[in-house]
Amino acid sequence: MTSPRAAWTPNSIPWGETAPDGTRYALLEGRRDADGELFTYAFFIPANLWDAAHWHTQDARVIVLSGALYLGYGDGLEIGKAERFEAGSVLVVPAGDRHFDGGLENTVIVGVARGVWATHYAAANVTPSAGTIS
To answer: Which of 2, 70, 107, 109 is the most exposed place for a label (fewest CB within 10 A)?
Structure first.
């Protein structure tokens, strides 16, 4: 099946509601609830926000569109161990790899993954970010 033509600019991303932590999510195309189907999403991380350690059920290919993404691996939030990825960086985050992320400035990432997609947090008492499906 061929996908229809589509394009987005940083100013045309159709953001959903802002979560209590200030994050925003947009499903740009595809379905994340369909087994094996590719989907593309955008995610906004506000300045000075860190997402607790979590993992995803599928690999994610992530492009830093603006700002700088800080990403570290492990079961806890250890900001000092996070690596900085500037706008234009491309990352692959493997399924099941526990990681944490955040930013010191407003940051937008775009990701491509396959469904069925879910996010699981290492700690049970974490408030999930925008667009989280557990």
So the answer is: 2
CA 119 to mean position of chain CA atoms? 10
* Its pTM surpasses 0.85: yes
Strand positions, DSSP E, the chain: 24-30, 38-45, 49-56, 60-66, 68-73, 83-86, 90-93, 99-103, 107-114, 119-121
Q: Is the pLDDT of residue 132 over 90?
A: no
pLDDT in tens, 24-40: 999 999 999 999 999 99
**What phi and psi, each to the nearest 5 degrees, are found at residue 111?**
-125, 155
Residue-wise pLDDT for 71-98, tens only, equals: 999 999 999 999 999 999 999 999 999 9
Q: Which three-class secondary structure state does DSSP give residue 45?
A: strand
Question: How many helices (H) does the chain have, and how many strands (E)?
Answer: 0, 10
- Are 64 and 85 contacting, i.e. CB atoms less than 8 angstroms apart? yes
